[in-house]
């Protein structure tokens, strides 16, 4: 069984794709889901999946930063992308009122449209949220009955927010944020009560390189890479005082359960 990294921006210009995948495979991280952040990036992610089968999957969606670009054409383009067997989630979508690169109104519209798309296609959602928790939850509740599921990607919140997401039947995506002894304190506390059957792991590479990586383990290009996923799991195992193998098994099984069900033929138990 491999590790499953549910959040990789493999199309990022900082990456030499072949080299990144070679290092990931060597580290046992051979299943991953590539993040689509716009129509163009979602297209690019799908192309990478086609180029490097069989255990690459992708999302198709418009990140809240780009919500101002969301229109009927974008909806149709995402709808078409989601027909590909490699596309296993709608997103990343959600709300980010921290920087408001798109206005809150535009973000609410784009998010709601993508929730409708996910309901229509019976695909899970890959969710982004920053400084917009209450509005995010309000919209998730509105569509909950028809949504097949989702994951709170790059969750960095506190235990109360985590419980709210768990009550909405969401999975929780844990990144290297959990390795941060200053910014990650609330998260480090929260994960102690995260049930294993709700856990997913992600690097969000090339962003968010985990703190505390030993020098011999990290490249000096400054990037985060999927190859560092096992390090995040090690840190999580230490915080939660559980066996890292349990983390590996559960996070893999959860990822497969949420993203693989409708596209079972594509997921390999390697
Ligand atoms: Zn995100």
Automatic annotation (TrEMBL):
<keyword id="KW-0540">Nuclease</keyword>
<feature type="binding site">
    <location>
        <position position="204"/>
    </location>
    <ligand>
        <name>a divalent metal cation 1</name>
    </ligand>
</feature>
<dbReference type="GO" id="GO:0046872">
    <property type="term" value="F:metal ion binding"/>
</dbReference>
<feature type="binding site">
    <location>
        <position position="153"/>
    </location>
    <ligand>
        <name>a divalent metal cation 2</name>
    </ligand>
</feature>
<feature type="binding site">
    <location>
        <position position="128"/>
    </location>
    <ligand>
        <name>a divalent metal cation 2</name>
    </ligand>
</feature>
<comment type="similarity">
    <text>Belongs to the metallo-dependent hydrolases superfamily. TatD-type hydrolase family.</text>
</comment>
<feature type="binding site">
    <location>
        <position position="92"/>
    </location>
    <ligand>
        <name>a divalent metal cation 1</name>
    </ligand>
</feature>
<dbReference type="InterPro" id="IPR050891">
    <property type="entry name" value="TatD-type_Hydrolase"/>
</dbReference>
<keyword id="KW-0479">Metal-binding</keyword>
<protein>
    <submittedName>
        <fullName>Hydrolase TatD</fullName>
    </submittedName>
</protein>
<dbReference type="InterPro" id="IPR032466">
    <property type="entry name" value="Metal_Hydrolase"/>
</dbReference>
<dbReference type="InterPro" id="IPR001130">
    <property type="entry name" value="TatD-like"/>
</dbReference>
<keyword id="KW-0378">Hydrolase</keyword>
<dbReference type="Pfam" id="PF01026">
    <property type="entry name" value="TatD_DNase"/>
</dbReference>
<dbReference type="GO" id="GO:0004518">
    <property type="term" value="F:nuclease activity"/>
</dbReference>
<dbReference type="GO" id="GO:0016788">
    <property type="term" value="F:hydrolase activity, acting on ester bonds"/>
</dbReference>
<dbReference type="InterPro" id="IPR018228">
    <property type="entry name" value="DNase_TatD-rel_CS"/>
</dbReference>
């Amino acid at each position: 069984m491999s590790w499953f990294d549910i959040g990789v921006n493999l199309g990022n210009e900082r990456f030499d794709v072949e080299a990144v995948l070679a290092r990931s495979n060597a580290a046992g991280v051979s299943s991953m889901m590539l993040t689509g952040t716009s129509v163009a990036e979602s297209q690019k992610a799908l192309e990478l999946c086609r180029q490097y089968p069989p255990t690459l999957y992708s999302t198709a969606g418009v990140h809240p930063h780009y919500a101002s670009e969301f229109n009927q054409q974008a909806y149709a383009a995402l709808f078409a992308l989601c027909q590909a067997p490699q596309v296993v989630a709608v997103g990343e979508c959600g709300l980010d009122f921290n920087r408001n690169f798109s206005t809150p109104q535009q973000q609410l519209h784009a998010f709601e449209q993508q929730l409708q798309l996910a309901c229509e296609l019976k695909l899970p959602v890959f969710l982004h949220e920053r400084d917009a928790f209450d509005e995010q939850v309000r919209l998730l509740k509105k569509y909950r009955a028809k949504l097949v599921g989702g994951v709170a990607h790059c969750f960095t919140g506190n235990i109360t927010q985590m419980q709210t997401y768990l009550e909405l039947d969401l999975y929780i995506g844990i990144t290297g944020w959990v390795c941060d002894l200053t910014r990650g304190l609330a998260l480090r506390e929260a994960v102690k009560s995260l049930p294993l059957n709700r856990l997913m792991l992600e690097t969000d590479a090339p962003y968010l390189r985990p703190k505390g990586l030993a020098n011999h383990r990290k490249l000096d290009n400054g990037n985060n890479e999927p190859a560092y996923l096992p390090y995040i799991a090690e840190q999580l195992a230490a915080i939660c005082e559980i066996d890292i193998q349990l983390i590996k098994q559960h996070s893999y099984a959860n990822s497969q359960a949420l993203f693989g069900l409708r596209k079972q033929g594509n997921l390999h138990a390697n």
